[in-house]
Amino acid sequence: MTLDLLPPGQSARIVAVHWDRLVDEEARRLRALGLDDGARVTVSHRGVFGTRDPIALAVGRMKVAVRRAHAAAMEIEPL
Description:
CATH superfamily: Ferrous iron transport protein A (FeoA)
Distance between the termini: 12 Å
CATH topology: SH3 type barrels
Number of strands: 5
CATH architecture: Roll
Largest sheet: 5 strands, antiparallel
């Protein structure tokens, strides 16, 4: 399952990130925010328009907004 499919309020652990699907600069930014293998995340909420972009995530004590395409590159394990 990928992070873009996780329902709001549910937690998961990132088990793999397909870095080759992301632009290098975007990949560096996501790593700097702690979105890497082993990170625990919770979907706080999603955008309300047709694409449901962006996705707000809780990562530790931070709230991070990511694009749906970025979340689709992250394989997760629901907790």
